[in-house]
Amino acid sequence: MKLISTETFHISEHSDNQTPKYAILSHRWESNEASFTDFRKDAEQNFQKTATQSHQGFVKIRRCCDLALTHGFRWVWIDTCCINKESSSELTEAINSMYDWYRKAETCYVYLADVGWKADTAEMQQASMSRFRQSSWFTRGWTLQELLAPAKVHFYDQDWRFIGTKDELAQEVSGITQIDIQFLLPDRQDDLEKPCTSALDCRGHSAPVKYWSGGRKEPSIATRMSWASRRHTSRIEDMAYCLLGIFNVNMPLLYGERQKAFTRLQREIIKNSNDDSIFAWATDSYGTGVLARWPSDFAQSRYVYEQAPIITHRRPYSMTNQGLSLPMTYGTWDPKTEILDVVLDCGVCGTQGFRNIVLRLKRSGKVWNRVWSHQIVTVDEGSWSCPPGLSRGLLVQEQKIRDAIVASSVVKTVGTEMMVQATWSVGYGPAHPLRGPLLSKL
Predict the structure, then answer these.
(1) Cα angle, residue 433 at apex, residues 429 and 436 outer, rounded to 5°
(2) Which residue among 31, 75, 82, 338 is least enclosed by CB atoms within 10 Å?
(3) Residue 78 to residues 83, 109, 160, 172, 398, Cα–Cα distance (Å)
């Protein structure tokens, strides 16, 4: 890990077991950033100049170093100049390690270049808060992990005036990002005994249907995906790569694969988790399959919960060389409409109580098609059985296609198993506006 000395402005490398205490910077990249090469070549010369120098990238680095030094930190990490992006192996290592680097930092400084903060009067503070809410920092993919991972986050405006901490601004930040405070501040114990989050249509449910991990509430995969659903990155692939740490997975970087990066991310998540909520999404695009085409498909999944396996007795699923092996414990079959609903081990809490989410399939001869992917379909808890002949479960198969091809999901009967051929549509669009959960009840 490369760190900058706040005293000498020199970069030095530190091994994992000898990394000193350090502060870390979070910011939105601008056009005139100082790269690793720029920094090694011109750091000494540029840092001798005043803060009015033309290279604003060096100004940002200098101001961050000065701030960290006043707080007693001798080292700081800044992504623009502490990664040699000319080395593909170093870039891959850095992106796969970045969540941990932010998590282990003593303090994270968030620099908001588009926010001017003045709080001399109530009117000025209100105007400043309005600018804070509209900052582009809250729309970027990379800054999501930079908000979540560090325990201490301090916000600064364009002139490096202190705005407040993540703890102090938690209510505002939660409203901006649609991330519940219990996940923004996981060490806070205030809300651990409450039966539910603040979903507008939620009447609460008992604690056993929620997952707990190490004494903390564990957000479902769908919930975490929803946090990224309204964010974007400059490069298409980075929308997947910026989520690696949030899902605790690692994978190589393949720039040029475009939307396939997000498919690879979902495959890696499935390898490391048995959370069915990865299938709990809705989209208005034609031709999607069992895997989402883009994080925006999870825009309505903020209040999707992972349910305890003892409720539905879900057996582990896995990715095989023929596709996703999805055991089917429970489901519902309507012979009149020939619709099969595969009950997933996840659900939503609403006015009707806790309802499980289902994967809806429709039969056409010997072929099954996924239907209603534009909605999250739910069923009442417990009103299920295992349809005859499907006890072995489903084999969910990916169909590799070019970006230009648009196709639908197809499920074929193979003996007593079923095979879902998942395909994806062209492109990646903006996130859907929040209109409340898109739910369909049987």
Answers:
(1) 130
(2) 31
(3) 8, 10, 16, 26, 39
Task: Give dist(CA 354, CA 347) in Å, integer.
Answer: 7
With contact defined as beta carbons under 8 Å apart, do 327 and 393 qualify? yes
Q: 45: buried, middle or exposed (CB in 10 Å: 19+, 13-18, 0-12)?
A: exposed
Instruction: For residues 313 and 53, give the distance between their C-alpha atoms in angstroms, rounded to a whole number.
Output: 64
Instruction: Indicate the DSSP class of residue 337.
Output: T
- Kindly state the tokens that stand for 172: 């505002």
Give the separation between CA 141 and CA 263, rounded to whole angstroms: 17
Task: Give the chain's length.
Answer: 442
Report how far residue 431's alpha carbon sits from residue 428's, in angstroms, rounded to the nearest whole number.
9
Are the C-beta atoms of residues 110 and 146 closer than 8 Å to each other?
yes
The structure tokens listed for 91 are 């870039």
What are the pLDDT digits (tens) for 136-148? 999 999 999 999 9
Other CB atoms within a 10 A radius of the CB of residue 129 amount to 17
Mean pLDDT of the chain: 79
Quick one: pLDDT at residue 305?
85
Q: Residue 53: its pLDDT value, please?
A: 55
Highest-confidence segment of 54-63, 163-172, 395-404: 163-172
d(C-alpha 229, C-alpha 435), whole Å: 14
205 backbone dihedrals φ, ψ, rounded to 5°: -150, 165
pLDDT interval class at 291 (50, 70, 90)? confident
- DSSP-derived secondary structure for 77-117: E-TTTSS-TT-HHHHHHHHHHHHHHHHH-SEEEEE-TT---
**For residue 329, which of 385, 269, 396 has the smallest C-alpha distance?**
385
Smallest CA-to-CA distance from 156 within 175, 179, 128 is with: 128
Please report the pLDDT score of residue 333 as a whole number.
79
Measuring CA to CA, which residue among 275, 299, 267 is closest to residue 210?
A: 275
Q: 249 Cβ partners below 8 Å, 6+ apart?
A: 265, 268, 269, 271, 272
Helix axes 36-47, 56-70, angle to 10 degrees: 70
Rounded Cα distance between 401 and 72, Å, is 54
User: Which residues lie across from 326 on neighbouring strands?
Assistant: 394
Percent of the chain past pLDDT 70, that is, above it, reads 71
Say if residue 248's pLDDT is above 90: yes
pLDDT in tens, 332-381: 878 888 788 888 888 887 666 678 888 887 765 545 666 788 889 888 76
Asked if 1 and 19 count as a contact pair (C-beta separation under 8 A), the reply is: yes
Going by pLDDT thresholds of 50, 70 and 90, the confidence category of residue 394 is low
Q: How far is CA 353 from the centre of its chain?
A: 27
Question: 294 and 239 in contact (C-beta within 8 Å)?
Answer: yes
